[in-house]
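Late entry, written up from scratch paper. The run itself happened at the end of the previous shift, but nothing got recorded in the book at the time, so transcribing now.
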Amino acid sequence: MANIAENLASYGTGIKYEDIPTETVQKAKGLLIDTLGCAIGAYSSEPSKIARKLACRVKSRNMKSTVLGSGRKSTPEMATFANGVMMRFLDFNDGYTGKGVCHPSDTFAPVLTCADACKASGKDVITASVLAYEVFCRIIDQIRFIPLGFDQPVPGVVAGVLGASRILGLNEAQMLQAINIAVSGNIALAQTRVGKVSMWKGCAMADASRNAVFAALLAKEGMSGPEPIFEGTHGFFKGVSGPFQLEPFGGGGRPFRIMNTVIKRYPCGLFAQSAIDAALLLRSKISGPEEIAQINIGTFTLGKTVMAGDKEKWQPKTRESADHSMPYAVGVALMYGSADVGHFDESYLEIPELLDLIGKITVDETEECNNLYPDALGNRLELVTRSGEKFSELVSYHRGHHKNPMTDEEIEQKFISLTKDLLSPVQTKTLFDSVWNLEQIDDVGTLISSLII
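Output as recorded:
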């Protein structure tokens, strides 16, 4: 009987573009536009500058990959890191929930960067991306990583190495070794997401993607890795997760998990999206935030753990802490009537009126919201005014959830809102035309190289 890594390698080499339904191809294209918008929107962030600076120090004689925005070339693994940091920094890229939570669009970094180096086609990119999403989400369906003390890059590196290996043309035996190498050396800690959250929160999955590309390149040259990496005496099951089995993958008439991913409407943690929607609905019932005496948020267990589980969530000191704070996100929405990228800048983190409002917020897990999860990422807000009036609103499916999806036009508008000061209208139109017709492109590198700021 094949072990998990062998099954993954078999699936990774066997999936074909023709296996992917039209609606799944369209979903992948929309997610790519969304992810590239997040990357360009984060171009000027400090972590992005650091990552680009390092990437541009490294030259490659053979395989060369483009660093997004700059147009500079680096090795595939260093360009993957820089591109992955940009995609993730704003905490605005997509999400998926099963037993745990992940941002599967992080895997666009290894797929696109390797595709650029290999002059892969649009069909290749779609196939590898759907594959990476499928693997990431199927593992998340099985394991609650954060309560175990581990972070998203643990399953993410598995997805990333499958996507990169597929683009790089590894055969099944090579892909198996790439998985073994990648998994054995990339066990990321959940400390990344608690307390005073640092820049690394937006870099951890980019680092896993970098390592995934490196593992794939090593395996292609003949390097072997420890096996069985999941079931072995000191393998993944023993050290990380305990035993699990992956359900049958998408294809052959079975749906792909990419269809259950969600696009964010606001630049903050996934679990706060519906809470912000509820806050904006309640704000319309009062004349202003000065009327508010108390705000009670009812959420689900993982929502509270991740976004309201420590005291720093009420007094964030960094952007990374703020965009992973449900109290901060709700406070911003109630104070300003919106929750935009600029509201999470550090200039907002010490505004007395905002901090006072956030101090009025309580967050508790409720049976109502736990019963909705993971189908819905529901939050109920109760607003109590100074006069004693109470208003309550439950939002189960925020705009962008796969049960309340954004239109293609809304995805484009989100991209434009993030990039309008960085890309010309001609560049934006060219990108939209290219991505919506991605299956017709022979060399994806032309698309990536056009995104020069």
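The mean pLDDT is 96.
(Scratch paper discarded after transcription.)
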